Please model this.
Amino acid sequence: MKTRDFEYRKRIYDQLESGEIDFRRAVAGLRKSMGLAQADFAKKIGIAPRVLIDFERGQGNPTLSTLQKIGAPLGFEITFRRKLRAGLLASSR
Model:
């Protein structure tokens, strides 16, 4: 991988982690950095192109399985984490 490509991808991961961009924008940026069109990436991961197109637009309602298929080749895994702010249970005490 070229240094420029590595730096671009690192910047996307950093922006996602800091909350500057959301997951769908990170996916679109990383997919593009790999030189893959939406239809090509969708075919590669085993989902319909329309599902990926809708996901990247912020539309649709992908299943957990679909999100796993989208994220796995980009180095993402589905998980839960505590919000930075206190959650509902903490505020009800």
Remarks:
- Residues 3-18 form the longest helix (16 residues).
- Helices lie at 3-18, 23-33, 38-45, 49-57, 64-71, 88-91.
